[in-house]
Give the backbone structure.
Amino acid sequence: MADISPAKYFPESNTTTTPEEVDIVLGKTLNDEKKLELIAKLKEFSCLWETSSPAYKTDKKSKEKAMEELSEIFNFERDSLRSLIHGLRSGLNRELKR
């Protein structure tokens, strides 16, 4: 089994490695096709992106359940997936401002 210890990939770091860093080290990223698939799946979970939805603002259980389901579908850590969704949303907002 391959050594994926943080010290091997981040020798200068004494901090705890985040799940996102582990996913990056392991080469787990989404290609464009998978990103489009993720966006299509996100449409099913408005509690994760629709800011006018009451579930977005107050229903943590449904948000956690949605993230868990997406993380299982795409085989990603929840924190990594949350970061990826944030990046997609930020990119969209940046493009809309142009």
Summary: The chain has six helices and no strands. The longest helix spans residues 78-97.
